[in-house]
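Entry:
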Amino acid sequence: MHQHLRKTVIRQCDENDFEVIHAIINDAARAYKGVVPTECWKEPYMSRRELQHEMDESVVFWGYEENGELLGVMTIQHVEDVTLIRHAYVRSGRRNQGVGGRLLSCLRHETTRPILIGTWADAVWAIRFYEKHGFRLVSPREKDRLLRKYWSIPEHQIKNSVVLADQRWFDARKRDENMKI
């Protein structure tokens, strides 16, 4: 019996992937409809102009590719003393098959800085996904401070979001607090 071999690769995306990235984001973002506050929801969820802006702002897109087809994307952005994991999207037909976990694992190896992730407070599945991979929610007060410091998002989005951090961030925070004593 011959089993079909899948060739998978995680790679940095480039401008040739623009349309596919745009399609993946807007397909996957449908899961947020009805979860994202009405004043924050729009269609398409991310316009081509917004996507180009993200790429121009040093947001680096990485893709999970199987047999030459891009199935998911996740971004990494170094901001000041932290790394942000942003825009994590997997094609709706390929969810819960390990694509997001493999992308996250790969991106964690791309930095030695503490990692922060912001997501919608009501996107329970997204929060669970990150917690399963070792991230923890920061306090609401800390969340507001971090979102204002490292992200450029409107106030109503800050109100409806959460921030998760890796152990490196919590360790650095503890060191900073101990130095103040």
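The longest strand covers residues 69-79.
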